Amino acid sequence: MRLQKTTISNVLVLVFIVFVLLSNLVPLPAIIGNALIAACGCIGYFYIAYEEKTDRAIWKITLFATILSLCMVISSFYNHNADLKEVLWIWCYMGAALLLCHSKIDDRWVQLIYYLLSAYFCICIVLHRSVHYILYYTSRNGISFQMLFCMLMIYLCRDRNKRVIYLPAVLNLIISVWALGRAGVLVSVLFLIGISIYGIGKDSWKKAWKYLFGAFFILIVSIFLLMTVFPTNETILKDNKEVQIQTLDEVSVNQTSDNVPVTTMNETFASRFSSYGFRSIRISIWGEYLTGMLLSVPNFLMGVDCSQGELLSYYQQPHNSYLELHAKFGMAGVVIVGGLLLLTFIKLLKAKNVLCILVLIACGIRAMLDWAAFPGSLDVFFWFLCFQNVFQIKVEADE
Question: Domain locations in the chain?
Answer without folding.
Answer: 116-279
